[in-house]
Amino acid sequence: MPRCFWCNDDPLYQAYHDEEWGVPSRDPQHLFEMLLLEGAQAGLSWITVLKKRERYRQVLFGFDAEQLAAMSDAYIETLMQDPGIIRNRLKLQAARKNAQAWLRLDDPVALLWSFVGGVPKINHFDGRGDVPAVTPEAEAMSKALKKAGFTFVGPTICYAFMQATGMVMDHTRDCDRYAALQQELRP
């Protein structure tokens, strides 16, 4: 099956590409998880985070924002010893800070989706060189999230988040998922 240029032959990566990436999500739990994981990915490859995703779910309370918001410094120190996750103190502290910020939002799902007008933006890119790393919408999302108290939410992270959660559909035309998702997402 032809896939996007970034998807390698790892079965975990292929399943993520084929079943999750680019599929619109309005599930607050999933959106929060993906926002934190995209932040954890900063400076690393997505496959690194993807391979650690299940362990993150275990040690970060299933990405329950209330439990993460109350995470103690001592627990963060314990997590720093866990080889199953990315042991970066700033990123772990960001998970707590972002959970606190998430809980302060009236409607995080509506806020996040507002940057694409509430509906998925379907792009029609031919290949790798056409897919941007940042868009004005991602820059606006980043600015709004930072203002709300989030960290590790720069414009590149926000655009990757938008792609992952189907706010934008960036499967390229040469990818098998492009036609299927374009058909599903048509109004």
TrEMBL record:
Name of a matching Pfam family: Adenine_glyco
Signal peptide location: none
Biological processes annotated in GO: base-excision repair
E.C. number(s) listed in UniProt: 3.2.2.20
Binding site for Zn(2+): C4, H17, H171, C175
SUPFAM superfamilies from the UniProt entry: DNA-glycosylase
Reactions mediated catalytically: Hydrolysis of alkylated DNA, releasing 3-methyladenine
InterPro entries attached to this UniProt entry: Adenine_glyco, DNA-3mA_glycosylase, DNA_glycosylase, Tag
GO molecular function, one term: metal ion binding
Keywords per UniProt: DNA damage, DNA repair, Hydrolase, Metal-binding, Zinc
Superkingdom of source: Bacteria
Function description: Hydrolysis of the deoxyribose N-glycosidic bond to excise 3-methyladenine from the damaged DNA polymer formed by alkylation lesions.
Protein name: DNA-3-methyladenine glycosylase I
Annotated organism of origin: Phytopseudomonas seleniipraecipitans
Lineage: Bacteria, Pseudomonadati, Pseudomonadota, Gammaproteobacteria, Pseudomonadales
